[in-house]
Amino acid sequence: MPAATENLIERCREIVEDLQMGEVRRWKEQNPGAAAIGYFPVYAPMELIHASGFLPVGLNGAGDRLDLQYADARFGSFICSIVKTTLEMGLTGYLDPLDGLLFSGICDSARNLAFVFQRNFPQKYVDFLHLPQNPSSSASAGFLKAEYLRLAAQLEKLGGRKLADDALRASIAAYNENRALLGDLYALRASNPHQVRTSDLYLLQRAGNFLPVETHNEWLSRALADIADRQAKPRDSVRIVIEGSFCEQPPLDLIRLVEDAGCYVLDDDFLLGRRWFTEDVPAGDDPLGALAESYLDRSVYSSVRHDFRHRRHKLLVEKARRLGADAVLFLIAKFCEPAYFDYVLFKRELEAAQIPHLLLEFEEKAFTFDRLRIEVETFVESLLFD
Ligand code: SF4
143 in a domain, yes or no? Predict the structure, then answer.
């Protein structure tokens, strides 16, 4: 890989691992008076936040970089790490650069987290976005558009800038470009997995949580051009699809471990909200309406959104077949109910399709992966020498 791309990925790693959110602080210094809004996974309308003059900042917890001192006292024991470490970040000042926080009802834990934040941070703008639960209802798009209008009015109060259709169209275009670039990188990895490590692609993508989308687009374009030109030697590896990491993110070392144990990752659902739409959002005359319709009709499947029009268990099998995957690896966060509920159905469908799979459970705060390494290596060997 050219040194320029290596440096870029190293810069992404620094940004992602910086709990102080130095990149967000720098942006605020360079844009006096401008504010930043943090959004919890999985899906948030970044376009709307951006068009209102804010920097949308993706929240993904604190990984293994923060000891829990206060957050444990606000939750029961059986709660995933991302919920606890996100609250710990708030209680220990790491979320101070953010002027507001946005949550949605992806699961009971995330829903509760929103209201724990409201209770503990009465001085901060904390909002809860109600996403429609029934995509086949004709009322859903209108409901979501009304919810976006409500959110826009709150952001207007906070930032003093009215949401203008032209600004929203420009933001939609910028995020369409972002998704297209990520899509190109994902497609490149799927066809030539030896040309880009998944851990590098992950860092490139996740750094976008803290960068203005225009800057992120520029970085992704540079990386794409470099990676496409790269000459690398293929190695003997098992081709897999990763499922189950749509919200809490596996530790970076675990992603590296999976690759080093002999897996080519053809697709994954890391940071899924950044790639929510499967095609461009058509901004048109009614950009807010288009954003709402796209949530329902131009979107990826997810364990935190029930859509009976498209059975996600069948979609996973289709994806694995389309990409020519040898197996599916489930990387599921401990105590993530939506992922575990779905796993039962995914497992049944994969077994019927005779596609092997392995389930690994992770926590943000994991220091050694010896047991997981043995499991992946054994799985890879069983596939290679079957
Ligand atoms: S990791 Fe799972 S349980 Fe935890 S907040 Fe995300 S979706 Fe909910």
Answer: yes
pLDDT tens string 45-91: 999 999 999 999 999 999 888 999 999 888 888 999 999 999 999 99
- Predicted confidence at residue 218, as pLDDT, reads 98
Phi, psi of 362 (to 5 degrees): -130, 160
pLDDT of 141-162, one tens digit each? Answer: 999 999 999 999 999 999 988 9
Is 197 inside a domain boundary? no
* Residue 59 near ligand 1, beta carbon < 6 Å: no
User: Whole-prediction pTM value?
Assistant: 0.96
114 lines ligand 1 (CB under 6 A): no
- Close Cβ partners of 184 (under 8 Å, ≥ 6 residues apart): 224
Q: Whose CA is nearest to atom 8 of ligand 1?
A: 107
What phi, psi does 102 have (nearest 5°)? -125, 130
What is the CA(191)–ligand 1 centre distance, in A?
31
In a domain, 155, yes or no: yes
User: Would residue 139 count as lying in a domain?
Assistant: yes
Instruction: Decide: 262 and 238 in contact? Cβ < 8 Å.
Output: yes
244: left (phi over 0), alpha (psi -120 to 50) or beta: left
Range of the domain at 78: 19-163
CA distances from 317 to 278, 328, 329 (A): 18, 9, 12
Domain count of the fold of the chain: 1
